[in-house]
Design goal:
Helices cover 54% and strands 14% of the residues. The protein is built from twelve helices and eight strands. Strands 3-2-1-4-5-6-7-8 form an eight-stranded mixed β-sheet, sandwiched between helices. Helix 1 packs parallel to helix 2. The longest helix is centred in the C-terminal third of the chain and has 21 residues. The structure holds NADP nicotinamide-adenine-dinucleotide phosphate (NAP). NADP nicotinamide-adenine-dinucleotide phosphate (NAP) binds next to helix 1 and helix 4.
Amino acid sequence: MKIGFIGSGQITKAVIEGIINSKLKIAKIYISKRNKKISRNLKAKSKRIIILKDNQEIIDKSSWIFLAVTPDVGNKILYKLKFYKNKMIISFISTINMTQLKKITGLKKNIVRVIPLPPIALCKGPVPIYPPNTKVKKFFDKLGTTVQINNENLSLNFWTTSAMMAPFYEILYTLSNWLVKNGIKKDNAQKYISYLFNALSEDALKYKKNLKKLVKQSQTPGGLNEQAVNDLRKAGFYNLLEKTSNKIIKRLKKSQFN
Ligand SMILES: NC(=O)c1ccc[n+]([C@@H]2O[C@H](COP(=O)([O-])OP(=O)(O)OC[C@H]3O[C@@H](n4cnc5c(N)ncnc54)[C@H](OP(=O)(O)O)[C@@H]3O)[C@@H](O)[C@H]2O)c1
Protein backbone atom coordinates (compact mmCIF):
# COMPACT_ATOMS: atom_id res chain seq x y z
CA MET A 1 0.00 0.00 0.00
CA LYS A 2 1.16 3.54 -0.76
CA ILE A 3 0.09 6.33 1.56
CA GLY A 4 0.55 10.08 1.57
CA PHE A 5 0.42 12.92 4.08
CA ILE A 6 -0.62 16.50 3.30
CA GLY A 7 1.26 18.49 5.97
CA SER A 8 4.35 17.23 7.79
CA GLY A 9 3.92 18.69 11.26
CA GLN A 10 3.90 17.16 14.72
CA ILE A 11 1.09 14.68 14.18
CA THR A 12 2.37 13.43 10.81
CA LYS A 13 5.77 12.92 12.45
CA ALA A 14 4.21 10.88 15.29
CA VAL A 15 2.02 8.75 12.99
CA ILE A 16 4.89 7.99 10.59
CA GLU A 17 7.22 7.10 13.47
CA GLY A 18 4.46 4.77 14.71
CA ILE A 19 4.17 3.19 11.25
CA ILE A 20 7.94 2.65 11.14
CA ASN A 21 7.82 1.07 14.63
CA SER A 22 4.80 -1.11 13.75
CA LYS A 23 4.20 -4.28 11.76
CA LEU A 24 2.26 -2.40 9.08
CA LYS A 25 3.40 -3.25 5.58
CA ILE A 26 3.55 0.05 3.77
CA ALA A 27 5.48 0.18 0.49
CA LYS A 28 5.81 3.98 0.17
CA ILE A 29 5.04 6.97 2.36
CA TYR A 30 4.78 10.27 0.46
CA ILE A 31 5.12 13.42 2.53
CA SER A 32 5.03 17.09 1.69
CA LYS A 33 8.14 19.22 1.86
CA ARG A 34 6.48 21.36 4.54
CA ASN A 35 7.72 21.30 7.30
CA LYS A 36 11.25 21.01 5.84
CA LYS A 37 13.00 20.00 9.06
CA ILE A 38 10.47 17.29 9.96
CA SER A 39 10.23 15.91 6.42
CA ARG A 40 14.03 15.68 6.15
CA ASN A 41 14.30 13.96 9.55
CA LEU A 42 11.57 11.50 8.64
CA LYS A 43 13.17 10.70 5.30
CA ALA A 44 16.40 9.84 7.11
CA LYS A 45 14.51 7.19 9.12
CA SER A 46 13.22 5.06 6.26
CA LYS A 47 13.88 4.49 2.59
CA ARG A 48 10.14 4.10 2.11
CA ILE A 49 9.63 7.82 2.78
CA ILE A 50 9.62 10.11 -0.24
CA ILE A 51 9.37 13.88 -0.08
CA LEU A 52 7.26 15.54 -2.75
CA LYS A 53 6.91 19.26 -3.40
CA ASP A 54 3.42 19.15 -4.74
CA ASN A 55 0.36 18.21 -2.64
CA GLN A 56 -1.51 17.04 -5.77
CA GLU A 57 1.31 14.63 -6.59
CA ILE A 58 0.98 13.16 -3.09
CA ILE A 59 -2.72 12.51 -3.70
CA ASP A 60 -2.13 11.10 -7.19
CA LYS A 61 0.53 8.63 -6.01
CA SER A 62 -1.18 7.42 -2.82
CA SER A 63 -4.12 5.09 -2.24
CA TRP A 64 -4.73 6.50 1.25
CA ILE A 65 -4.32 10.23 1.89
CA PHE A 66 -3.94 11.66 5.38
CA LEU A 67 -4.93 15.30 5.89
CA ALA A 68 -2.64 16.68 8.58
CA VAL A 69 -2.68 20.44 8.17
CA THR A 70 -4.22 22.97 10.54
CA PRO A 71 -7.87 23.91 9.92
CA ASP A 72 -6.96 27.36 8.52
CA VAL A 73 -4.46 25.89 6.06
CA GLY A 74 -6.90 23.08 5.20
CA ASN A 75 -9.64 25.55 4.33
CA LYS A 76 -7.20 27.43 2.10
CA ILE A 77 -5.45 24.62 0.19
CA LEU A 78 -7.70 21.55 0.09
CA TYR A 79 -10.35 23.10 -2.20
CA LYS A 80 -7.69 23.48 -4.87
CA LEU A 81 -6.77 19.80 -4.90
CA LYS A 82 -8.39 16.99 -6.86
CA PHE A 83 -9.47 13.97 -4.82
CA TYR A 84 -10.56 10.62 -6.25
CA LYS A 85 -13.46 8.46 -5.11
CA ASN A 86 -11.46 5.21 -5.09
CA LYS A 87 -8.92 6.61 -2.57
CA MET A 88 -9.36 6.74 1.19
CA ILE A 89 -9.19 10.17 2.84
CA ILE A 90 -8.27 10.19 6.51
CA SER A 91 -8.55 13.58 8.15
CA PHE A 92 -6.79 14.48 11.38
CA ILE A 93 -8.08 18.07 11.18
CA SER A 94 -9.82 18.99 14.42
CA THR A 95 -12.37 21.54 13.31
CA ILE A 96 -13.35 20.59 9.76
CA ASN A 97 -16.42 18.38 10.01
CA MET A 98 -17.61 15.57 7.72
CA THR A 99 -20.04 17.75 5.77
CA GLN A 100 -17.26 20.28 5.13
CA LEU A 101 -14.81 17.50 4.21
CA LYS A 102 -17.27 16.11 1.66
CA LYS A 103 -17.67 19.58 0.17
CA ILE A 104 -13.93 20.25 0.11
CA THR A 105 -13.00 16.91 -1.47
CA GLY A 106 -16.07 16.56 -3.67
CA LEU A 107 -16.42 12.98 -2.39
CA LYS A 108 -19.44 11.29 -0.84
CA LYS A 109 -17.69 8.36 0.82
CA ASN A 110 -14.30 6.95 1.79
CA ILE A 111 -13.70 9.84 4.19
CA VAL A 112 -12.85 9.07 7.81
CA ARG A 113 -11.98 11.38 10.69
CA VAL A 114 -9.33 10.07 13.08
CA ILE A 115 -7.85 11.59 16.24
CA PRO A 116 -4.30 10.26 16.69
CA LEU A 117 -2.20 11.61 19.55
CA PRO A 118 1.60 11.95 19.79
CA PRO A 119 2.14 8.64 21.69
CA ILE A 120 1.04 6.92 18.46
CA ALA A 121 4.78 7.20 17.67
CA LEU A 122 5.21 4.46 20.31
CA CYS A 123 2.19 2.57 18.91
CA LYS A 124 0.32 3.53 22.08
CA GLY A 125 -2.76 5.51 22.97
CA PRO A 126 -6.43 5.72 21.99
CA VAL A 127 -7.38 6.36 18.36
CA PRO A 128 -11.00 7.47 17.89
CA ILE A 129 -12.39 6.81 14.39
CA TYR A 130 -15.52 8.36 12.87
CA PRO A 131 -17.47 6.90 11.10
CA PRO A 132 -16.63 3.24 11.82
CA ASN A 133 -14.54 1.82 8.98
CA THR A 134 -13.14 -1.72 9.02
CA LYS A 135 -10.06 -1.03 6.87
CA VAL A 136 -9.09 2.13 8.74
CA LYS A 137 -9.66 0.39 12.09
CA LYS A 138 -7.41 -2.51 11.01
CA PHE A 139 -4.68 -0.04 10.08
CA PHE A 140 -4.83 1.95 13.34
CA ASP A 141 -5.19 -1.24 15.45
CA LYS A 142 -1.48 -1.68 14.69
CA LEU A 143 -0.74 1.83 15.99
CA GLY A 144 -2.81 2.05 19.17
CA THR A 145 -6.19 1.26 20.68
CA THR A 146 -8.99 2.15 18.27
CA VAL A 147 -12.38 3.42 19.40
CA GLN A 148 -15.04 3.53 16.65
CA ILE A 149 -17.70 6.23 16.94
CA ASN A 150 -21.06 6.33 15.16
CA ASN A 151 -21.97 9.89 15.87
CA GLU A 152 -19.84 12.87 14.82
CA ASN A 153 -21.24 15.05 17.58
CA LEU A 154 -20.10 12.48 20.16
CA SER A 155 -16.61 12.38 18.66
CA LEU A 156 -16.19 15.99 19.80
CA ASN A 157 -16.05 14.70 23.37
CA PHE A 158 -12.87 12.82 22.52
CA TRP A 159 -11.37 15.88 20.83
CA THR A 160 -12.17 17.80 24.01
CA THR A 161 -10.44 15.40 26.36
CA SER A 162 -7.47 15.12 24.01
CA ALA A 163 -6.91 18.82 24.74
CA MET A 164 -5.81 17.76 28.22
CA MET A 165 -2.44 16.56 26.91
CA ALA A 166 -0.66 19.87 27.47
CA PRO A 167 -2.34 20.41 30.88
CA PHE A 168 -1.22 16.89 31.87
CA TYR A 169 2.39 17.61 30.91
CA GLU A 170 2.16 20.92 32.74
CA ILE A 171 1.29 18.97 35.91
CA LEU A 172 4.34 16.75 35.38
CA TYR A 173 6.50 19.80 34.72
CA THR A 174 5.22 21.68 37.77
CA LEU A 175 5.86 18.73 40.09
CA SER A 176 9.26 18.02 38.57
CA ASN A 177 10.18 21.68 38.96
CA TRP A 178 9.01 21.60 42.58
CA LEU A 179 11.44 18.73 43.21
CA VAL A 180 14.24 20.72 41.54
CA LYS A 181 13.50 23.77 43.71
CA ASN A 182 13.81 21.46 46.70
CA GLY A 183 17.26 20.29 45.75
CA ILE A 184 16.70 17.27 43.47
CA LYS A 185 18.74 17.14 40.25
CA LYS A 186 16.64 17.90 37.14
CA ASP A 187 17.26 14.48 35.52
CA ASN A 188 16.22 12.62 38.63
CA ALA A 189 13.23 14.87 39.19
CA GLN A 190 11.93 14.35 35.63
CA LYS A 191 12.62 10.63 35.81
CA TYR A 192 10.81 10.22 39.13
CA ILE A 193 7.72 12.16 38.07
CA SER A 194 7.46 10.55 34.62
CA TYR A 195 7.82 7.02 36.03
CA LEU A 196 5.37 7.80 38.85
CA PHE A 197 2.59 8.94 36.49
CA ASN A 198 3.38 6.21 33.98
CA ALA A 199 3.03 3.55 36.70
CA LEU A 200 -0.21 5.06 37.99
CA SER A 201 -1.76 5.11 34.49
CA GLU A 202 -0.60 1.55 33.78
CA ASP A 203 -2.07 0.38 37.08
CA ALA A 204 -5.44 2.02 36.28
CA LEU A 205 -5.41 0.45 32.80
CA LYS A 206 -4.03 -3.00 33.46
CA TYR A 207 -6.40 -3.95 36.23
CA LYS A 208 -9.31 -2.07 34.58
CA LYS A 209 -9.84 -0.43 37.91
CA ASN A 210 -12.89 1.66 38.54
CA LEU A 211 -11.48 5.18 38.59
CA LYS A 212 -13.72 6.36 41.42
CA LYS A 213 -12.61 3.41 43.57
CA LEU A 214 -9.01 4.07 42.67
CA VAL A 215 -9.25 7.61 44.05
CA LYS A 216 -10.57 6.15 47.30
CA GLN A 217 -8.15 3.23 47.51
CA SER A 218 -5.13 5.43 47.02
CA GLN A 219 -5.88 7.43 50.18
CA THR A 220 -4.98 6.30 53.68
CA PRO A 221 -7.41 7.88 56.17
CA GLY A 222 -5.66 10.92 57.58
CA GLY A 223 -2.77 10.36 55.14
CA LEU A 224 -0.91 12.57 52.70
CA ASN A 225 -2.90 11.60 49.58
CA GLU A 226 -6.14 12.36 51.40
CA GLN A 227 -4.80 15.79 52.33
CA ALA A 228 -3.64 16.49 48.78
CA VAL A 229 -6.86 15.45 47.03
CA ASN A 230 -9.05 17.31 49.53
CA ASP A 231 -6.97 20.49 49.31
CA LEU A 232 -7.06 20.40 45.50
CA ARG A 233 -10.83 19.75 45.51
CA LYS A 234 -11.40 22.70 47.85
CA ALA A 235 -9.24 24.92 45.66
CA GLY A 236 -11.47 24.01 42.66
CA PHE A 237 -8.71 22.19 40.73
CA TYR A 238 -10.97 19.37 39.50
CA ASN A 239 -13.98 21.61 38.90
CA LEU A 240 -11.76 23.66 36.65
CA LEU A 241 -11.01 20.58 34.54
CA GLU A 242 -14.74 20.20 33.94
CA LYS A 243 -15.26 23.90 33.26
CA THR A 244 -12.34 23.97 30.82
CA SER A 245 -13.68 20.87 29.02
CA ASN A 246 -17.08 22.57 28.70
CA LYS A 247 -15.45 25.63 27.15
CA ILE A 248 -13.45 23.53 24.70
CA ILE A 249 -16.44 21.50 23.52
CA LYS A 250 -18.39 24.73 23.07
CA ARG A 251 -15.61 26.07 20.82
CA LEU A 252 -15.52 22.81 18.85
CA LYS A 253 -19.30 22.77 18.35
CA LYS A 254 -19.25 26.38 17.23
CA SER A 255 -16.52 25.72 14.67
CA GLN A 256 -18.04 22.50 13.32
CA PHE A 257 -21.76 22.92 13.30
CA ASN A 258 -22.39 26.63 12.67
N1 LIG B 1 -0.66 17.63 17.32
C1 LIG B 1 -1.59 16.78 17.77
O1 LIG B 1 -1.44 16.17 18.85
C2 LIG B 1 -2.82 16.50 16.95
C3 LIG B 1 -3.63 15.41 17.31
C4 LIG B 1 -4.73 15.11 16.52
C5 LIG B 1 -5.04 15.89 15.43
N2 LIG B 1 -4.27 16.96 15.14
C6 LIG B 1 -4.68 17.79 13.98
O2 LIG B 1 -3.73 17.57 12.97
C7 LIG B 1 -3.56 18.76 12.21
C8 LIG B 1 -2.09 19.11 12.19
O3 LIG B 1 -1.65 19.33 13.53
P1 LIG B 1 -0.11 19.43 13.89
O4 LIG B 1 -0.04 19.52 15.36
O5 LIG B 1 0.65 18.37 13.17
O6 LIG B 1 0.20 20.88 13.27
P2 LIG B 1 1.59 21.44 12.77
O7 LIG B 1 2.71 20.83 13.52
O8 LIG B 1 1.44 22.93 12.74
O9 LIG B 1 1.66 20.89 11.28
C9 LIG B 1 0.95 21.46 10.21
C10 LIG B 1 1.79 21.23 8.97
O10 LIG B 1 1.12 21.76 7.84
C11 LIG B 1 2.15 22.30 7.00
N3 LIG B 1 1.62 23.18 5.98
C12 LIG B 1 1.32 24.49 6.05
N4 LIG B 1 0.89 24.92 4.85
C13 LIG B 1 0.94 23.86 4.01
C14 LIG B 1 0.66 23.64 2.63
N5 LIG B 1 0.21 24.64 1.86
N6 LIG B 1 0.83 22.41 2.10
C15 LIG B 1 1.27 21.38 2.86
N7 LIG B 1 1.57 21.52 4.16
C16 LIG B 1 1.40 22.73 4.72
C17 LIG B 1 3.05 23.01 7.97
O11 LIG B 1 4.30 23.31 7.35
P3 LIG B 1 5.21 24.52 7.90
O12 LIG B 1 5.70 24.10 9.24
O13 LIG B 1 6.28 24.62 6.87
O14 LIG B 1 4.31 25.74 7.96
C18 LIG B 1 3.17 21.90 9.02
O15 LIG B 1 4.12 20.95 8.64
C19 LIG B 1 -4.42 19.84 12.87
O16 LIG B 1 -5.59 20.02 12.14
C20 LIG B 1 -4.71 19.28 14.24
O17 LIG B 1 -5.98 19.65 14.70
C21 LIG B 1 -3.15 17.28 15.86
